Amino acid sequence: MLEINNNNDDYIGRLKPLTFLAVLVIAILIVRVGYLQIYDGEYYARLADGNRIRVIPSVAPRGTFFDRNGQLLVTNRPGFAVSLLPLSEPNQVVIEKVSKLLNIPVEEIQKKIDAHVGFDPIRIKTDITPDVVTIIEEQKNEYPGVVIEVQPIRNYILMQEGAHTFGYVSEISDEELERKKEEGYRSGDMIGKFGLEKVYDKEIRGENGGEQVEVDVAGKPVQILGKKEPRPGYDLILTIDKDLQTAAEQAVDSMLAQIHANAAAAVVLNPQNGEVLAMVSRPAFDPNLFAHGISEKDWNAINTNPYHPMDNKTITGEYPPGSTFKIVTGTAALAAGKVTPEEKIFDSGTHWLIPKGNAGGEALGWLNFRAAMAHSDNVYFYEMGNRLGVDLLGHYAKMFGLGEVTGIDLPYESPGLVASKEYKMKVYEEEWYISETFDAAIGQGFNLVTPLQAAMVMGEIAANGQRFKPHLVKKIVTQDGELVREIQPELSGTLEIDPSIIHLVQDGLHEVTKSGTAARNFGGFPYEVAGKTGTAENPQGKDHGWFVGYGTFDNPTVCVAVIVENGGYGATSAVPIGRKILEAAFAIEEQRGKF
Fold it and tell me: What is the CA radius of gyration of the chain?
């Protein structure tokens, strides 16, 4: 009996520590639960909400583009996107169904899921067809966690017209997203990639809204808890004239078809304020292809085109200016006192220092400045280069703004090149020869300009020596028409020469269209205009044809520059385009009561 009691005492003795330990653990758990409820309750409530509440963004429509007269250029159309709610465990069966429905590989969808960060829906495909929307909406139980986002799709109603100016939008890349996260961009957003869409992306993208949606454990939407309306982007009122843009495009296309050429560029601007009225670059592309995700077939067609449809040749194409550069050479020679307006120089067919002559081998005899400009006499301008020297010639070229970007509100502008001894030594490590000065004087050799720069040179003469920064946007406004910002004309340079010199150059350019190299094309033209033809040597093939001009002669409001790649003589390829553009511009102004 005594032994049994001793065993019970031992058992009870061992049980007491265990009981104490169990009570202690329970007490700790109760304290911890209390702590979590009282102190961290709000934090864990937010985590719980994060598991059952999703934010479905509502994409803000991008701002609309209008021409200077209120005509529609670029707008949006309704569209839809398929997105996945970011569940903790993506449903592989659903992913496979979505893959089959959208014809997108499972691997590509999984890649988007793996790269996604945050609670925003994972956008799988934009601009889906109505039948896909119907299937997902009618079979919601088959697609848990899949939602349809309403998404405005960019609509370039002119298609290829103005494509290089307006630009295009496309889905933001990973690299762009990394740079722009702090600006509110998210994966799947559409962003301006080119043209005005890129330059003014911040102003025209707007501010996205969204809905707070409660979902069940499978990610299926249950109810809408809150909603924020998106703020549309600002609209752009451009300097472009839609009717003139169309006329310019048609003039370029007609000539290319006629002479079987493939590439050209044309710029039309107002020399009095820098407003760009039209820009054409050929070949072109349809920016609508990018707005909903360009196919591999369409991209290959663009990317393999040897004439580079994606290049905006008006600002990126760098060409020898040919005889259009004689505007610079002639202005420099008169301004520097290297020649008088009436001094006559004899053209025997070649220059007396170096056997260089006119392109067609002509010998035009005794010529003063006005006649030499009208007939684009090489021998006369070789002598002007000889008297000036390349350094002084380069000084005046830079005074005209050559060798640097104009600052137009478009991306990827090229600076061109002003011929110089320094450039040749740096690139070729060779001394300069006088024959290269001769070449520079007539716009050959190392000289390079863009069509926009060529238009600016002509515009400076038309505007009596003033150079205005070219621009494409007049106003930025809200959708209600309230002014956000107005772009004022900006003087970017002045020719520091006597006004009488500019008037002499104007007279010489006027004579080009009256009795000179462009007279044949402007015969019977109802308005007085000035112009200059040019033919730029091209070592890779047929020469390029140039024309620059302005009108009316007494009241210049329109300046044009045209280049036709491999077009041969400018008088036969570029001048007819220039005439049609000037004709259309004056007809439009007359129709609108500006004459």
Answer: 35
**C-alpha to C-alpha distances, 387 to 56, 383, 419, 481, nearest whole angstrom:** 72, 6, 16, 57
Tokens, residue 59? 């994409």
Maximum Cα–Cα distance for the chain, whole Å? 150
HEC assignment per residue over 338-374: CCCCCCCEEECCECCCCCCECCCCCCCEEECHHHHHH
d(CA 330, CA 334): 6
Contact (Cβ atoms closer than 8 angstroms) between residue 409 and residue 472: yes
Please tell me the distance from the alpha carbon of residue 73 to that of residue 530, in angstroms, as a whole number. Answer: 31
Residue type at 324 in one-letter notation: T
Closest C-alpha to 454, from 210, 265, 296: 265
Give long-range contacts, CB 8 A cutoff, 24+ apart: 45-50. 50/119
Choose the weakest-confidence range: 238-252, 267-281, 350-364, 472-486: 350-364
- Residue 171's DSSP bridge partners are 190
Is the pLDDT confidence value at 381 over 60?
yes
Please give the angle made by the CA atoms of 253, 257 and 262, to the nearest 5 degrees: 80
With beta carbons less than 8 A apart as the criterion, state whether 223 and 214 touch: yes
For residues 566-592, average pLDDT = 91
Distance CA 470, CA 453 (A): 10
Closest CA to 465 of 487, 426, 493, 495: 495
Alpha carbons 468 and 456: distance in angstroms, whole number: 8
CB contact at 8 A, 326 and 532:
yes
Predicted TM-score of the model (pTM): 0.84
**Distance set, CA 282 to CA 158, 275, 521, 571 (Å):** 15, 21, 23, 19
In order, the DSSP letters of 5-72 are HHHHHHHHHHHHHHHHHHHHHHHHHHHHHHHHHHTSHHHHHHHHHHHHEEEEEEPPPPPPEE-TTS-E
Candidate ranges 106-110, 120-124, 216-220; pick with highest mean pLDDT? 106-110
Q: Is the separation of the CB atoms in 172 and 197 below 8 Å?
A: no
Buried b (16+ CB within 10 A) or exposed e, 89-116: ebbeebbebbbebbebeeeebeebeeeb
483-486 vs 473-477, strand pairing mode: antiparallel
Answer whether 103's CB lies under 8 Å from 131's CB.
Answer: no
What is the spatial distance between Cα 261 and Cα 31, in angstroms, rounded to a whole number? 85
Strand 491-494 versus strand 483-486 pairing type: unpaired
Name residue 342's amino acid: E
Contact of 206 with 60, CB cutoff 8 Å = yes
Give 448's DSSP letter. Answer: B
Condensed to tens digits (0 to 9), the pLDDT of residues 186-232 reads: 777 788 999 999 999 999 998 877 766 666 655 555 666 666 777 88
